[in-house]
Design the sequence.
C-alpha cells in the first residue's frame, strides 16, 4: 500500500491565479514544476474522445486517490508499460498471476485494490461497447454549463453530473469511480472547463467558449 508523498505538491492544493516565470497566468499548482506546467499547458482539460485514452485517464485517476497528481504523472510511463498502454482488450485478460506481478513492480502504485480495479474496469469497458461504449457514456454527462471559477476555492470537487456518471459507471460494473474521482476525470478530459477565469488556458479546449 502506497502512502502520500508529502513533498510533492497535490494538484488540488491550489491558490488563486498567479503569473509564472514566463508571464502566463496559471493556477499555483501549475507553476510548481516543469512537469505540472507542461501537463497544464498541453493536456489538462483538452478533449479525450477515444476509448483507450479515456480508459487510461480513468485508471490513472483511480490510482491518484489519496496521492499527488505529480506522482502519477512521474509514474505514467511505468503505468503504461505495466498495463499494456491501457489497451482494454489486453488488460481484460490479466490474471491473478499478473496482479501478483504488478504488486512487485516498483514503478507503479502497488495497491492491490487499485490494480484489480483497472482489470475490472477493462472488462467493463469491453462489455459497455454493446451499449454505445465508454466514450458515449462519459460524454453524455457533459453539463449544459461549465463552472467559471475565479479562485481555487470556487472550483467544485464534484457535481450532479459527476455523481450521475459515477452511478452509471458503477451500474455497468466499474469500480473506483466515486463522484469526486469522476469530476476530476471530467476536468482532465474537457467535459467541464475549470481553468480559472483569466488563465491563458481558459476556453482553450474548444468544447466551451
Sequence:
Amino acid at each position: 500500500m502506497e502512502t502520500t508523498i508529502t513533498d510533492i505538491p497535490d494538484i488540488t492544493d491550489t491558490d488563486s491565479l498567479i503569473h509564472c516565470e514566463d508571464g502566463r497566468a496559471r493556477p499555483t499548482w501549475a507553476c510548481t514544476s516543469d512537469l505540472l506546467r507542461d501537463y497544464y499547458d498541453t493536456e489538462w482539460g483538452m478533449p479525450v474522445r477515444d476509448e483507450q485514452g479515456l480508459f487510461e485517464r480513468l485508471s490513472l485517476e483511480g490510482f491518484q486517490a489519496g496521492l499527488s497528481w505529480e506522482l502519477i504523472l512521474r509514474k505514467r510511463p511505468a503505468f503504461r508499460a505495466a498495463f499494456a498502454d491501457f489497451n482494454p482488450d489486453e488488460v481484460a485478460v490479466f490474471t491473478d498471476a499478473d496482479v501478483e506481478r504488478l504488486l512487485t513492480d516498483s514503478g507503479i502504485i502497488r495497491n492491490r485494490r487499485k490494480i484489480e480495479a483497472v482489470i475490472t474496469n477493462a472488462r467493463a469497458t469491453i462489455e459497455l461497447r454493446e451499449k454505445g461504449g465508454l466514450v458515449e457514456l462519459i460524454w453524455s454527462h457533459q453539463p449544459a454549463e461549465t463552472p467559471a471559477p475565479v479562485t481555487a476555492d470556487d472550483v467544485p470537487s464534484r457535481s450532479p453530473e459527476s455523481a450521475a456518471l459515477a452511478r452509471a459507471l458503477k451500474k455497468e460494473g466499474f469500480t473506483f469511480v466515486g463522484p469526486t474521482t469522476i469530476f476530476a476525470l471530467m476536468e482532465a478530459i474537457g467535459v467541464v472547463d475549470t481553468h480559472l477565469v483569466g488563465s491563458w488556458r481558459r476556453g482553450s479546449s474548444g468544447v466551451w467558449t
Summary: Confidence is low (pLDDT under 50) at residues 1-14. The longest helix spans residues 112-128. The beta strands are 17-19, 25-27. DSSP finds nine helices and two strands in the chain.
